[in-house]
Write a structure and sequence with these properties.
67 residues; alpha+beta; two-stranded antiparallel sheet; 2 helices; elongated
Amino acid sequence: MLQALEATIEASGEIHLIEPIHLAHSCRAIVTILEKPEIPGTALLSQQSLAHDWESPEEDAAWSHLQ
């Protein structure tokens, strides 16, 4: 079974899982390095609020000349 886990990796190579995991036996793992910086929580929280204003027919009409 494949399972994805979020973790941070220190410059020294030390890996810290975001949430603990309990395994019945030792396992192999593949680590993928994500170069993108983490998105601040405040940006994620405001996304739904901003989408309410931005995703409207009026907003589409206002910006239609750029499509």
